[in-house]
């Protein structure tokens, strides 16, 4: 099995309304011998105002985001999709990738009409998250790593502090390639310093194994971190799954809920157990690379609890109903197209059209867009034509596109999930002497004026 360690630097923190500006990855074999590395950048999409805070943290100057020598986001997405295909099957991993980088990648593929938005989960690919492995190491093999504190004296798990604290020269923190190298360094420290735990953590990449173990009512443990609290390992077993999402499961805590209490629980008692603090039943996901491990030497009490939970099929049903009710709130009637990424699956017919879309000319692409059955993809496709082939637009379509940009950028900041002009000016004020304010203001003003004049 190959590893693909990867990282993005982005225009902001929203996968739906920001975008990657840099992608870096290092491919290795199981022994961490390097096979290939990639470090690519792209322009900012025409409808995005990059966050000044994000640019400052990543040491990207605003004018670099519009460098015409860089790939467009569409070309960048094509390159990235081809890269995922070239190295499959592999285990894709990074630092906090499950919560941040992977959603960014999916949105990049989705908004740029790539055929496979779940590229890291098909063609034999699997996923891990090194940050979650670090949490498990803290809880179960603490001496493997040295643990830094921040300027407030609080324990810090940030890569830019963890890596140098453990001997890595992390001089270019928040550069994607440097962060990948730092991640590999920490991954290898765990591999060499806690080999037994490391072997168990690798199993988290095998969703089939984890799911079958859980649904077999085997005693298991998982390390989690909530808020600023230190990571903690919880021991328990599967106790039901959401009706609408089999990946969303209940995990009953052995320490807080015994076999007898579970087996006679009412629907109200189950709801209370899920909502309690601390939680007697936790809602966890088996497709988020949580660090589930089989407990090797379970106690008789653990085994008894698992047997009782397994036998209490009616109570498992209560768990399923509680989760389903909890997450069955209706979606807003008017979701932005970016937020509709999981609203539907792309049909095979549309996927075939998207495959053809990749090599077509822009006039041909405009025709393909009209053949798509998925309205989301039609809308995103028409946006791409406006971005990269504006000569194909009618006068009215040009007006509509300018109105779209005006609506995006001039919306009051507290009413939009994307970066607005109002928020840009506030951010520049806050950054103050940390940046060349006049140059940054000139860049943003010119970008905004271009749609107003």
Low-confidence stretches: none
Q: How many separate domains? A: 3
Tell me the number of strands. Answer: 10
Tell me roughly what share of residues is in helical segments. 40-55%
Examine the secondary-structure arrangement and name the CATH architecture of the largest domain: 2-Layer Sandwich
Number of helices: 18
**Structural classification:** alpha+beta
Rounded radius of gyration (Å):
24 Å
Q: CATH-wise, what's the superfamily of the largest domain? A: Ribonuclease H-like superfamily/Ribonuclease H
Shape, principal axes of CA atoms: globular
Straight-line N-to-C gap: 55 Å
Sheet bearing the most strands, described?
5 strands, mixed
Might you state the CATH topology name of the largest domain?
Nucleotidyltransferase, domain 5
By CATH reckoning, the class of the largest domain would read Alpha Beta
Enumerate the strands of the largest sheet in spatial order, edge to edge or round the barrel.
3-2-1-4-5
User: Would you tell me the overall average pLDDT?
Assistant: 95
- How much of the sequence lies in strands comes to 5-15%
Oligomer: single chain
Q: What order do the SSEs take from the amino end to the carboxyl end, as H and E?
A: EEEHHEHEHHHHHEEEHHEEHHHHHHHH
């Amino acid at each position: 099995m190959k590893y693909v360690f990867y990282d993005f630097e982005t225009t902001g923190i929203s996968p739906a309304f920001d975008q990657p500006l840099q992608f870096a990855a290092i491919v290795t074999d199981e022994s961490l011998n390097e096979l290939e590395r990639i470090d690519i950048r792209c322009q900012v999409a025409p409808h995005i105002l990059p966050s000044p805070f994000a640019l400052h943290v990543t040491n990207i100057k605003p004018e670099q985001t519009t460098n015409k020598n860089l790939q467009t986001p569409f070309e960048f997405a094509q390159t990235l999709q081809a890269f995922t295909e070239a190295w499959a099957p592999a285990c894709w991993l990074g630092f906090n990738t499950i919560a941040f980088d992977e959603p960014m990648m999916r949105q990049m593929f989705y908004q740029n009409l790539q055929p496979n938005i779940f590229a890291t989960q098909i063609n034999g690919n699997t996923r891990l998250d090194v940050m979650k492995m670090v949490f498990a190491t803290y809880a179960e093999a603490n001496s493997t790593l040295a643990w830094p504190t921040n300027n407030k004296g609080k324990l810090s798990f940030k890569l830019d502090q963890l890596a140098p604290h453990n001997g890595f020269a992390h001089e270019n923190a928040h550069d994607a390639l440097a962060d990948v190298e730092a991640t590999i360094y920490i991954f290898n420290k765990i591999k060499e310093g806690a080999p037994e735990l490391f072997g168990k953590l690798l199993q988290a990449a095998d969703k089939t194994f984890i799911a079958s173990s859980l649904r077999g009512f085997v005693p298991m443990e998982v390390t989690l971190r909530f808020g600023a609290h230190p990571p903690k390992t919880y021991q328990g077993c599967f106790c039901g799954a959401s009706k609408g999402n089999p990946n969303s499961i209940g995990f009953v805590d052995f320490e807080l809920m015994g076999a007898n209490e579970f087996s006679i629980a009412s629907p109200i008692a189950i709801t209370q157990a899920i909502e309690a603090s601390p939680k007697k039943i936790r809602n966890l996901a088996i497709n988020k690379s949580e660090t589930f491990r089989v407990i090797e030497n379970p106690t008789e009490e653990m085994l008894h609890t698992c047997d009782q939970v397994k036998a209490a099929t009616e109570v498992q049903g209560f768990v399923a109903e509680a989760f389903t009710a909890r997450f069955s709130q209706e979606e807003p009637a008017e979701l932005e197209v970016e937020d509709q990424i999981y609203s539907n699956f792309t049909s095979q017919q549309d996927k075939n059209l998207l495959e053809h879309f990749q090599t077509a000319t822009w006039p041909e692409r405009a025709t393909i867009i009209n053949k798509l059955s998925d309205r989301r993809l039609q809308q995103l496709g028409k946006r791409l034509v406006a971005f990269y082939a504006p000569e194909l637009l009618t006068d009215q379509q040009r007006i509509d596109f300018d109105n779209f940009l005006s609506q995006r950028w001039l919306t009051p900041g507290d009413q939009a999930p994307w970066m607005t002009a109002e928020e840009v000016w506030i951010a520049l004020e806050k950054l103050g002497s940390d940046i060349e304010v006049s140059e940054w203001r000139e860049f943003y003003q010119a970008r905004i004026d271009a749609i107003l004049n």
